[in-house]
Every structure is written in C-alpha cells, then in structure tokens.
Amino acid sequence: MSASVLRLNKVLGKCVYGVRLTKDVLNTSQRVQNMFTTCANVPILTVAICTPISVIVRNTSFFNKLPAEALWKGVTSVSNAGRKRGRGKGIGKKMAKDLNRGQVIGVGKSNIIWPGLTVPVLRGRELVQQQKLPEDPEREKMLIKLRDDMGNFRPLRLSPIERGWSGTKMPGRSIGPPDPVGEETFEGFDTKVLELKSVFNMKGSAGRKRQISAFVVTGNKNGSAGIALGKALEAKAALRKAKNRAGQKMMYLEIFNNHTVYHDFFCQFGKTKIFVTKKPEGFGLVCHRAIKTTCEVIGIKDLYAKVEGPTNLQHIIKAFFIGLLHQKTHQMLADEKKLHVVEFREENDYFPTVVASPATCRTLEEINADEVMDYTQYALGNRVFLKKKRLPPFFTKLPSWENYLKKTQYTRNRDKVKVTLLAEYDEVQSFYTEKYPECVHGYREQTEAD
C-alpha cells in the first residue's frame, strides 16, 4: 500500500507543479483514486486533482514566418557541401524569353492604322489616312499567354569568340576597357581575364579569410598594354579593381611591322623560362594560351613561344613582358654595332634587304675577327637556343629512297637555278649561250613564231 501512495505522490506532484498534464497522467491518477475509494479494509483517502494547465499553441510556423523568397531558396538552392560535389550547376543561370513572339510590325499598344505598313495605301480610289482605333485588350492577354507558355527556356549563350578558354570559366573572356579617370577615357582598349581564383589568408584573430584574386591584361592592340592583380571579397569587385589598376600601369611595347617581335629573345621569371621566336606574317600565334591572349591585346599577330619549367600563369605573363621590354629595335642594334642591319627572308628568296643603318658605319678593317655578326645571336646576348637534334626520317634508310633520289636528281634545284640565272643574266640561259645562241630558254618558240 505504501508503494501505491508513493506512486500517487509522484504522479500528483507532476500535476501540481504544472510541468505537463497528459492523458496518461490523468488516467493514472483516476485509477489510483478508484483504488483508494473501493478498498474496504483501509480508510478512504480523498485526493484533490488539480485542473489541467492549457498548452500554449503557436500560430506561427516555418512556412508562414519566412517570406516566399526565403522558402523558395530553401527548396531550390544547394548547400555548400553539395556545390563542392558538383550539384546545382544550372542554378542562377540567366534564362531568355523571346519577347518578339506574337509581335507584328506596326501593331502596338496604341492601335493605329499606318498606310503602307499595316493597311494598303489605296482602297479602291480612296487614299487611306492615318487614324487611331480603339485599343484591343485581347492583344495584351494573348502576348502574356504566349510568354507564360514558354516553359523550357535555353540559357543565354555567348558567341565562340567571347566564350574564353573553357566556356564556363572567366579566364580568356573580355570585360571591357578600364573605367575613365577624370576626363581621360580608354577608347579602343580591351581587358582580358587571365586568372580568377579563390585565395585564403589565415589570421590569428579573424581565422581563415577568403578572397577572390583576379589577374588581367589590358591593351589597345597597338603596342600599349598593362597587367595588374586585384583582390576583393567578390569576383566583380576584384575584376573591376584589377582592370582599373592595369589601366594605370600602361607600358609601350615595340612591334615589328605591326605583326611580330623584332627578334628572337629569351626571358625568365623565377623558374619559368620562355623562348620566343620571330615569325613571318600569316604564321599565327603558336604559344601558351595566356601568351596568345596577351599578344591579341598588345597587337602581336605572329609568334612562336615555348614555355619551360613551372607553368605559373602570373610568372609566364611577367616573364613575357620582361622579354618584350628588353627587345631592341633594328635602329638600336645598328647604332650599337655601327653596322648596317640586313634582313634575309625566305619568302623573298633570301634577297638581302637593309632595314636599318647607323649614322657612321665602320669599315671592314675595324671589325674584329671574333666579333659576333649574327643578328639573332647578338640580340640573345651572344647565346643560341639549344635545340634537340632532329633525327632523319626512317624511310631515308630504305633502298627505295636511293632510287627516288636518282630519278629526281635531274630536276633537283631547278627552281633555284632559274632564280639565280634571272638575277645574274636577266634570262634563263646556258653557259654555252655566247657560242651557241640557241641555248636560251624559249628559243624554239621564237623560231617557230618567226
């Protein structure tokens, strides 16, 4: 019996203090009360049951406490962990609607008759006059319905020229000219993004601080260019800061014939090495994609560059700019050597062309025997590129190759011989021409014509 009383006190104690009064507690207290009143051998114990405390009901919930934008964002957005795993790549893309769908030329909100556009100029013998008609409410409803029916919209696509290096990334894309400084504007300039990445800085007080780093190059495609690095908490701010800094750090770079560099050069920044080779017009840009984008901004159209060592993008661009700034023009080399600078081009059959002359030229006796006379070697600082030896093709060791050489020996160097004869004798002729006048190219055609 004592155990029952203790149990009753424990149950009633919960009721008295009003922590919670559930259906189970009420049933238990009722059963205990019945047990005490029906027992014959024990005095009746009267128990006072407290009234149940009302539970507070909340009229607000998750769905009516937050605005609609926050609710939709919670349903459609992706968490940071999911974004790292590649989820939600299509979220936030701009969607396009064809607003021209359903539109007719000459028909708008104001319902006006335009002779020659919406109606004929003449109706029978009468000349139609321009006049305004009542508005058509059905037209607006039809346009709204057409736009609402557009379910699956394609995202806005960039043209292949504006797409950059890898389509969805910023590097390689154009972000326009730098912002004007006072009354000075950057007309004709264009800025290309070379690098856009997240960087972190650990601090003792603030912890890990995240920023966006942007590296850009700007130029006017006529020799003026500049590079800069910008950091900010957001990508747009970092790009704008880097673009404006690049506009403040402009450099003028020499371009030969508005298409290539003046000479081959070697440049280095850190452990990154670049070997740049001058190329003729029409060759194109055969180099690293960052160097190619930089050359397009500067105005260089033909170039070959080989990168060796680490491919840190900022080191590559800095090394390339150092090489461009250190190159010497033909006139500078002619003044240094006090000799004429003569150019031999393959497309001109290596015909000598003087491209620069000094004020006073040295004589042959004044030139030292060990002096470097090669233009490229002198421009490289008395050094040459170490190139891998090219092995002969495999078919040169076959017997059929010897047979081919014997068959083509008769016509070998025929074109070069013709050019040499035209340069020396003004016609293609044999060394027997003086003795035998008929040994001239085209003699048979001349006799037949006579």
Automatic annotation (TrEMBL):
Which keywords does this Swiss-Prot/TrEMBL entry list?
Mitochondrion, Ribonucleoprotein, Ribosomal protein
A single BP term in Gene Ontology: translation
Source species, domain of life:
Eukaryota
Chief location bin: mitochondrion
Please spell out the taxonomic lineage of the organism that makes this protein. Eukaryota, Metazoa, Ecdysozoa, Arthropoda, Hexapoda
Q: Which organism is it from?
A: Zootermopsis nevadensis (Dampwood termite)
Q: Name the protein family.
A: Belongs to the universal ribosomal protein uS5 family.
User: PROSITE patterns from the xrefs?
Assistant: RIBOSOMAL_S5 (PS00585), S5_DSRBD (PS50881)
**What protein name does the entry list?**
Small ribosomal subunit protein uS5m
The listed locations are: Mitochondrion
MF terms from GO for this chain are: RNA binding; structural constituent of ribosome
